[in-house]
């Protein structure tokens, strides 16, 4: 009954409401679909041999898929599937916390850069409040959530201050290793989306989604692992493996 209501509501909202900061289109070349026997996750290509995602992702029998727009369409072209060699969770990550929520995936072979697969840049400085970022991930059709997600979406939202984020998430410890992106107050519109969405700002990867009360594709505030603060771990892991 609840899913039927959400299906009707989402259809009405999609018909009668125009969302100016919502974009649907081709897959950003750095975006990776991580398919598994559990739930999928979003990943980001940061090097021809490396993908980064959230450590909270549970990925048994992982498939790393690049260039895909509609995972529910088995006939889609320009899709590349890559095997992986090893997964590296951040050593301080705990399933009971949203801190240190990052994971690196080393691929078995280098990905050739193309229009459909290209590594994103990593940050060289801290991201400022009010910076504009693009958050991309896949959404499910609420009328049939048993199928794979079928809609790649992007929303343009801004970075909010730590004070605003702590006010929005009073029960969470918002640390300096996190950034928060979205609109306050949130919209809380119905959706179901693939977790671990990246926040890319001016072509640079600044965050990987750890938690959101709502849907980031509807501009609700998300808490992201700040990539800049984890650069030493990222670079050391790639260098030593």
From TrEMBL:
Top-level taxonomic group: Eukaryota
SMART domains documented for this protein: Tryp_SPc
UniProt xrefs under SUPFAM superfamilies: Trypsin-like serine proteases (SSF50494)
Gene Ontology terms, MF aspect: serine-type endopeptidase activity
CC annotations in GO: extracellular region; secretory granule
Subcellular localization(s) per the UniProt record: Secreted
Signal peptide: 1-17
Domain Peptidase S1 span(s) in chain numbering: 12-239
Keyword Iron-sulfur: no
InterPro entries found in the cross-reference section: Peptidase_S1_PA, Peptidase_S1_PA_chymotrypsin, Peptidase_S1A, Trypsin_dom, TRYPSIN_HIS
UniProt keyword list: Disulfide bond, Hydrolase, Protease, Secreted, Signal
Any GO BP: proteolysis
Official protein name in the record: Serine protease 58
Species of origin: Mus caroli (Ryukyu mouse)
